[in-house]
Description:
The protein is of the alpha+beta class. The chain has helices spanning 8-11, 132-144, 161-178; strands at residues 21-28, 34-38, 45-50, 60-64, 75-80, 90-103, 106-107, 110-115, 153-159. The protein has a single domain (8-179), classed as Inorganic Pyrophosphatase (Alpha-Beta Complex), CATH 3.90.80.10. The chain is built from three helices and nine strands; from the N terminus they run αββββββββαβα. A hairpin with a 2-residue loop joins β6 (90-103) and β7. The mean pLDDT is 94. Substrate binds at residues 35, 49, 61, 145.
Amino acid sequence: MILDPQNPWHKVPVGKDAPDIVTAIIEIPQNTRAKYELDKTTGMLKLDRVLYSSMYYPANYGFIPRTYCDDKDPLDIVVLSQITVVPMCLISAKVIGVMRMLDGGELDDKIIAVADNDMSVNHMNDISELPEHFFNELRNFFEDYKKLEHKTVQVEQFQNAELAREIVTKSMEDYLELIK
């Protein structure tokens, strides 16, 4: 893989306090049906598709720079905040958990974080502090948003901040292996 040093995936630091607090690059704002994603070649944001379902992303969604996962992409992150964040915005995000899921049979973890600069959520330190309805809503969205595309997503389980930080650390190590 050719690594363009100007691509945000490679240029933006993961954060000096990682894996506890990471930089999140938002691709998709909450409450939208647009599925944006980083174009790995140009570093620009592209419209991948409009969701086939009449569903909206329940939270701001993006990735953690300088991480790498089995799906050959950076590690995904869901960032909770009281506001809708514009695409390509950098957010300091406190890691509080992880949603483990299978997308088309492949492991596809989603780190769950809170915006560190948002006083309405930054007091949370673990997903156990989130309301049960949050888990139901997130599970429902990710298991259903691809159904009309005839694709299968299965949410396995939600795990705590400790495991989430281990996953972030591993993805940072895997990224360093990638760029050797």
